[in-house]
Design brief:
Blueprint: H1 3-11, H2 15-25, H3 30-62, E1 64-68, H4 73-83, E2 94-97, H5 118-123, H6 128-140, E3 145-148, E4 153-158, E5 161-169, E6 182-188, H7 193-211, E7 215-223, E8 226-235, H8 247-260, H9 265-271, E9 278-283, H10 290-301, E10 305-308, H11 317-325, E11 331-335, H12 364-377, H13 382-390, E12 398-404, H14 412-415, E13 422-425, H15 431-442, H16 473-486, H17 494-501, H18 508-523
Parallel strand pairs: 7-10, 9-12, 9-13, 10-11, 11-12
Antiparallel strand pairs: 1-6, 2-3, 4-5, 5-6, 7-8
Length: 524
């Protein structure tokens, strides 16, 4: 037997007998037929893939490329853009998912929620059970996004140019944080470098257009060994007319921020050697609208909010400094409840040792014990916070907003001008604010600074309109005055009045009629 016959006999038991029988009786050489049939199959199965892989490697070697790394914000924009390209989400091998990773949603804007039809919503009045069942089904059926599979080369065209995409996961380091980390590579012909740059610009522009009508909220979180700004939410803007506070004070804050963000302000600051920064402190009881005003300001001037929790146990001085150094030129930095961050006033938080009862001198041990106590209560010190806010290397162009319920607990060094340029008090609502709260529920929001007022933030006139066509504007305005007279001023926060009005949002007359009973119950 020939070597080929021996091999076939090994792979296919009984082949020798079959071959001899066909040769003896029909004079047919089965080897020749097998070569005709198996040869093209083997060529397609083994030779072509190897040839194609070598051809792709040569193309990638000679082409120009751009790399996008996982920790860069452009990575999220690129993945979102890729998922929306019909050419790239219909590849032979792809990844399906509802989340990009543990923290960044594919698309978490409120207007992307798939609402029920008008007919389904009207049926709720008759029988709410089918409504809740269908609502639950829609909530569970999250939108699935498709992206090309990693470790593969995928091709698409952009502006008439052939572009190759490769997703390369990071090497497995045993760290769960790195499980979904990867790099993106785009390849093009060496003479089409401008097309790659245009592609990145289109990706950024698509993300910007997506966020144009939303306020993006980011938070400083530890990802692996580094602190990074992570996108947490993308919310619809909030009109300042829905933020209830003193109208003159609100107008002054808006005017101050608009003056600060004027195109000529930066050069004016720099020509006079002034650091181009602005800081605000919102202080007052909980529920008076401090965070709401911050969000309203961000909605007005179209700035992103960067939140930092100073009380985070894993946040240290280096992490805070790195977060501030990576801030964009124009943004709002928010420190909420800064009085609860463990950064105490100097001179009041030095632990009393046994010797402190006998002398007023501060020994070296006392100082070490003080700093140790301060670091245990917070990952950063007061001096570190002051340095990132107003130090030599402090970031410029940002707006810093700090909120606190107890301004008396903050150190004077933190409150001095240059760090806090404007202190904004928040109080319990007065009669005018109570009326504004009522109008907020039963009138459609406008671009005015005050609901029902004429202080427009732009030149577009926004006439007052009731939230329901069944209500007359004159009745709503009259009821707002009656409501303001029945609720004692200076006793409730805006949150408390809003909480009362929520069940009556479809019945303003009942809200006015029942408010006296609510006031009497809350006083007991």
């Amino acid at each position: 037997m020939s070597p080929a016959d021996v091999l076939l006999e090994t792979l296919v038991p009984g082949y020798g007998l079959l071959a001899r029988s066909l040769q003896s009786y029909f004079h047919v050489d089965i080897i020749s037929y097998l070569l005709v049939l198996v040869g093209p199959f083997a060529f397609c199965a083994y030779v072509m893939p190897s040839f194609w892989a070598q051809l792709q490697s040569l193309f990638l070697l000679l082409s120009t490329s751009v790399e996008i790394r996982y920790h860069d914000e452009l990575f999220d924009d690129a993945m979102r853009w890729i998922s929306n390209q019909s050419t790239l989400n219909r590849t032979l091998r792809f990844v399906a998912g509802t989340r990009m990773d543990f923290a960044t949603l594919w698309d978490n804007t409120e207007d992307d929620e798939r609402d029920l039809s008008e007919t389904d919503q009207l049926r709720f009045e008759n029988d709410p059970r089918p409504f809740w069942i269908k609502r639950t089904e829609l909530n569970n059926l999250q939108q699935i996004r498709y992206t090309p599979a990693p470790n593969q080369i995928h091709y698409f065209t952009f502006r008439g140019c052939l572009i190759a995409l490769r997703r390369q996961p990071y090497e497995d380091s045993g760290n769960p944080w790195a499980a979904s980390m990867e790099k993106l590579y785009f390849y093009a012909a060496p003479w089409r470098r401008d097309v790659l740059k245009g592609l990145l610009y289109s990706i950024q522009k698509a993300s910007t257009e997506h966020d144009r009508h939303h306020v993006v909220v980011r938070r400083g979180l530890r990802l692996g060994s580094d602190f990074q700004w992570t996108r947490m939410a993308s919310k619809k803007p909030r009109s300042l007319s829905t933020v209830i506070m003193d109208s003159e004070l609100k107008s002054g804050i808006v005017q101050d921020i608009e003056n600060y963000l004027h195109p000529r302000t930066r050069s004016w600051y720099q020509s006079r050697g002034l650091p181009y920064r602005r800081g605000y402190l919102f202080y007052g009881p909980p529920g008076t609208g401090k965070s709401s005003l911050c969000f309203g300001i961000a909605s007005l001037v179209q700035l992103e909010i960067f939140m930092v929790s100073l009380s985070a146990g894993d946040l240290d001085e280096n992490g805070l400094a790195l977060l501030f150094q990576s801030l964009p030129n124009r943004c709002i930095v928010l420190f909420e409840d800064v009085d609860q961050a463990g950064i105490r006033k100097r001179g009041t938080d030095i632990p009393l040792s046994r010797n402190r009862y006998k002398t007023d001198e501060i020994t070296e041990c006392d100082s070490l014990e003080y700093h140790s106590s301060e670091r245990r209560s917070s990952g950063i010190t007061l001096s570190a916070l002051l340095n990132v806010i107003d130090g030599v290397s402090a970031q410029e162009g940002r707006i810093l907003i700090m909120t606190t319920n107890h301004i008396e607990k903050l150190d004077d060094a933190l409150l001095r001008p240059g760090r806090v340029d404007m202190k904004v008090p928040f109080h319990h609502v007065d009669s005018s604010a109570i009326q504004q709260l009522f109008l907020t529920f039963f009138l459609k929001p406008t671009d005015a600074l005050v609901m029902g007022g004429k202080e427009l933030t732009n030149s577009i006139d926004s006439p007052l309109t009731t939230a329901s066509p069944d209500w007359a504007i004159d009745d709503i305005m009259k009821w707002s005055h009656v409501f303001g007279d029945k609720v004692p001023q200076g006793r409730y926060t805006a949150a408390e009045v809003q909480n009362y009005l929520l069940p009556y949002r479809n019945n303003p007359e009942s809200a006015v009629r029942d408010v006296a009973g609510w006031v009497s119950l809350s006083c007991n």
